[in-house]
Design brief:
Blueprint: E1 15-16, E2 39-44, H1 49-61, E3 64-70, H2 73-83, E4 86-89, H3 97-108, E5 114-117, H4 132-160, E6 163-168, H5 171-175, H6 181-201, E7 206-213, H7 220-224, H8 238-251, E8 255-258, H9 263-271, H10 273-283
Parallel strand pairs: 2-3, 2-5, 3-4, 5-6, 6-7, 7-8
Antiparallel strand pairs: 1-4
Length: 284
């Protein structure tokens, strides 16, 4: 059965929707005494779900100048107002939008200390039924847009000798999920990119964190065209993922699973792939 690929309401092009001039000051300014300064965080996919939760968690923590990006202009405005952030509505799958976002961030709040790449879309159904435009959209947003944006902000981090890139992956990318072939492939690419980039940046002061959530209670399933109907695993709130992101940034962790027990199926798949595939075929 083919599922319609729905897209959240979005602005026709990149647009500043919630500027906060008091929080948008270029440069790396010290605050709160000697040795401390306000850091700059850029969060994508911030109009809802995990991205919005991350933005709110960083806003609650303080010490961050936030730039938020997402496709749903009105939801993004609300999150930005809640977090005293500057919001830049854009569809990062559109060529050039990544460059506009990076340039806007540099011009308004200065170099990026933390990038949380949370923008993502999914699609559920048999691969042979997947429309070509949905296939392109899943790859464009989850993979291409993420890599392009990372490519734009990492050089500044390396030059500064500090920074962190947080890539929001998925359990689907670690173990593969039935009826989500392209989404699983896209998130697997994000995980492999995180590992490879981490090796490359070793010694530069720039870290890479791969966050691997399971089922999260967000509009993701509504947007992908198929609701989540399984009784287990139970969805976790996006705030739990946001707290994991905050902790990973604070402690410099390379990879985080949310919830933590998700490491188990990944280890089983790695240690006994045949057994894992038999179990997956039986239990889905």
């Amino acid at each position: 059965m083919t599922h319609a690929f729905s897209r959240p309401r979005s602005a026709p092009g990149p647009q500043v929707v919630a500027p906060h001039a008091g929080h948008a000051r270029p440069g790396r300014e010290p605050v709160g005494g000697a040795g401390t300064r306000t850091r700059t965080a850029l969060v994508t996919g911030a109009s809802s779900g995990i991205g919005a939760a991350v933005a709110r968690r960083l806003g609650d923590e303080g010490g961050w100048r936030l730039v938020l990006s997402g496709r749903d202009r009105e939801r993004l405005r609300t999150v930005a107002e809640d977090t005293s952030a500057t919001a830049f509505a854009a569809d990062l799958a559109v060529p050039g939008a990544d460059r506009q976002l990076a340039d806007f961030t540099l011009a308004t709040v200065g170099p990026v200390d933390l990038l949380v790449a949370g923008a993502g879309v999914g699609w559920a159904g048999e691969f042979r039924d997947m429309p070509a435009h949905a296939l392109d959209q899943v790859l464009d947003i989850n993979v291409r847009a993420t890599l392009r944006l990372v490519r734009l902000v990492v050089p500044g981090m390396v030059e500064a000798g500090s920074g962190r890139v947080v890539l929001i992956g998925s359990l689907a990318g670690s173990v593969a999920v039935r009826d989500e072939a392209v989404y699983s492939a896209a998130k697997a690419a994000v995980g492999a990119f995180a590992d490879a980039l981490r090796y490359e940046l070793r010694g530069t002061g720039v870290g890479v964190t791969h966050v691997v959530p399971g089922v999260v209670d967000t509009p993701f399933f509504e947007h992908r065209g198929t609701p989540y109907r399984r009784s287990r695993p139970r969805p976790v709130p996006p705030e739990r993922v946001a707290e994991a992101v905050r902790t990973a940034v604070e402690r410099g962790r390379d990879e985080v699973y949310v919830p933590g027990w998700l490491r188990l199926p990944c280890r089983v798949r790695g240690a006994a792939p045949g057994l894992y595939r038999r179990l997956a075929a039986r239990f889905g």
